[in-house]
Write a structure and sequence with these properties.
The complex is a heterodimer. In chain A, about 70% of the residues lie in helices and about 0% in strands. Chain A is built from 14 helices and three strands. Chain A has a three-stranded mixed β-sheet, with helices on both faces. In chain A, helix 2 (about 10-30) runs antiparallel to helix 6 (about 65-90), helix 8 (about 120-140) packs parallel to helix 10 and helix 12 (about 225-235) packs antiparallel against helix 13 (about 240-255). Chain A starts with a helix and ends with a strand. In chain B, about 80% of the residues lie in helices and about 0% in strands. Chain B has helices at about 1-20, 25-55, 60-75, 80-90, 95-105, 110-125, 130-140, 145-155, 165-175, 180-195, 200-210, 215-225, 235-250. In chain B, helix 9 packs antiparallel against helix 10. In chain B, about 35% of the residues are buried. Classes of the chains: A mainly alpha, B mainly alpha.
Chain lengths: ~280, ~250
């Protein structure tokens, strides 16, 4: 018990996150939670994020789709978290976690099917691995000297193994993994751990602008069919509604609607063809 | 270039918002156009690389050389350089200035190296290694007149300095300045003392070609191609050997 208290004192955010994972697992039905319940609790879905629920970009990262998923991610968090939290301090560690979770969700929203659900903390965990990579890069005499040591090489092996596993196991969203890795790496490298050889300001600024703009586009995807359909539903006059519908059909099919064609038909046909995104995807 | 690309991507959602003010169809049409353009750019880039590799065989060794330069610039020991720069504020000697300049130059950072090397030469004008490194830094920065003066002074005092590398650099600078007859003389003298190397023989061939000695150029290019035949050369020598091969094809075997 004393060990646990000491450890919680050293890495409070890690322990709070682990507690959050377990609590949310109980609330969602730990062994085999239903997609509906996960959705109610804040699972990620591009449709909802674009529909005015941006908090899902973060809340998905404390939800899990089953016991194995929960145990695996909690183990990774408890293994990697305290190391990073001790190295960077609690608020930087929290920033890394948030950056990883946001990176994963933003890339999932940008590249994934907006109808599919995604839950899990592994986007954020990949972000932590990206941050650990930066820590190793900054600790050496030059950016790549860490490759001379076994420990950091194993970290790269771990990242690659997890990405390969993500490709092999069905229902795992590797997009969120890659997004999380990029999010954690970029935020740590450019902002939190800039090192003595300062990163060029212009490059840091452009990267920050790109991250913000990608997050903005995930919340307001003005050229994506689901957002355009929503605008059509809200549109007050029929002419404007037709415009929105035509744009949605174009976005969905990738080509202009023929002059005498009906955009609603084109949308329905395209949606029927691609109706396979209903099962929740695991972010690990 | 990277920064511009990042800004262009970052501003794209804002541009879409502006297009949306006109009509949603315009915004989506532009979005689709961008995606199509990105796809075609990737295809065009792959085709361009393949075509360049086929039409200009030194292209791939050139890529390897650029990769090596990038790796060296990113993996140089900056901590050692920083420590030296700090120490130089407390105690300055020509040898330490030279060490700092050499470290920076090794990372391909001639701009950082130059003030250290200038100061090293200022502190000890007789220090040949400092003048040789200064000549190299000036050559990298394109200051050919000054580089020729430094390298010429080094070669005049020690013709075999740095195992003939000083003479090779001097010959290369003279050729770049259009003083091809002098360049050829220096490079021939270097070859007599140290034997051919892909780089030296290629530059000699170019200098001879510029003076109108086609036969001499051909034999120099042949020597460059024959150097280390069958052996794996480092990126720089492989680049010169590939260029010599292409030049030999142009002048006729």
């Amino acid at each position: 018990m004393r060990n646990l208290i000491d450890s919680a004192n050293e890495a409070p955010v890690t322990h709070l996150l682990a507690l959050g994972y377990v609590t949310m697992a109980f609330l969602s039905g730990a062994v085999d939670p239903e997609a509906q319940r996960l959705h109610e609790l804040g699972a990620l879905r591009g449709l909802d994020v674009a529909g005015g629920e941006p908090w899902r970009l973060l809340t998905y990262s404390v939800l899990h789709s089953g016991l194995v998923h929960l145990v695996f991610n909690t183990m990774m968090l408890v293994w990697l978290g305290p190391m990073l939290e001790r190295a960077y301090g609690w608020w930087r560690f929290l920033a890394i976690y948030v950056a990883g979770a946001l990176g994963g969700s933003v890339l999932f929203c940008l590249l994934g099917d907006p109808r599919s659900l995604c839950v899990g903390g592994s986007g954020a965990l990949f972000g932590m691995m990206g941050a650990a990579l930066v820590r190793n890069m900054r600790a050496g005499r030059h950016l790549f000297s860490f490759l001379d040591h076994d420990g950091p090489r194993q970290l790269i092996g771990l990242i690659v193994t997890n990405l390969v596993l993500g490709m092999l196991i069905p229902g795992v969203s590797n997009t969120a993994h890659v997004g999380g890795l990029l999010g954690g790496f970029v935020v740590t490298f450019f902002l939190l751990d800039r090192g003595r050889d300062a990163v060029p300001r212009a490059l840091a600024l452009a990267t920050a602008a790109l991250c913000l703009s990608a997050t903005w586009y995930a919340v307001r995807p003005v050229a994506r069919w689901d957002w355009l359909l929503r605008q059509a539903e809200r549109s007050p006059n029929p002419a404007a509604e037709a415009d929105w519908l035509e744009a949605a059909a174009m976005s969905l099919t990738g080509r202009a609607v023929p002059a005498n064609g009906d955009p609603t038909d084109a949308i329905e046909r395209a949606l029927d063809r691609g109706r396979d995104g209903e099962a929740p995807q695991r972010d690990r | 270039m990277t920064v511009l690309l990042l800004w262009a991507l970052a501003l794209w959602p804002a541009a879409l918002e502006l297009l949306l003010l006109d009509s949603p169809v315009t915004a989506v049409a532009w979005d689709l156009r961008l995606r199509e353009a990105a796809r075609w750019t990737a295809v065009a880039l792959a085709v361009a690389v393949a075509a360049a590799a086929l039409l200009y065989p030194p292209f791939l060794p050139g890529l390897r050389l650029q990769g090596q330069r990038l790796r060296l610039s990113m993996s140089g020991d900056r901590t050692r350089l920083r420590n030296l720069q700090f120490e130089l504020r407390q105690l300055e000697t020509a040898a330490r200035q030279l060490e700092a300049g050499r470290l920076a130059l090794g990372m391909g950072d001639a701009r950082t190296a130059l003030p250290h090397l200038l100061r090293a030469v200022e502190l000890d004008p007789e220090h040949l290694p400092a003048r040789w490194q200064l000549g190299l830094a000036l050559k990298q920065l394109g200051q050919l007149q000054l580089a020729a003066a430094e390298l010429g002074a080094v070669v005049a005092r020690d013709p075999v300095h740095a195992f003939g590398q000083a003479r090779l650099a001097y010959g290369t600078v003279l050729h770049a300045m259009g003083r091809d007859a002098e360049a050829a003389a220096e490079l021939r003298a270097r070859e007599a003392a140290h034997g051919p190397s892909p780089e030296a023989s290629f530059v000699l061939g170019r200098a001879l070609l510029a003076t109108g000695d086609r036969e001499g150029a051909r034999s120099a290019f042949s020597a460059a191609v024959a150097c280390g035949a069958g052996a794996k050369l480092d990126a720089q020598q492989a680049w010169y050997r590939a260029r010599a091969r292409a030049a030999l094809r142009r002048v006729g075997r």
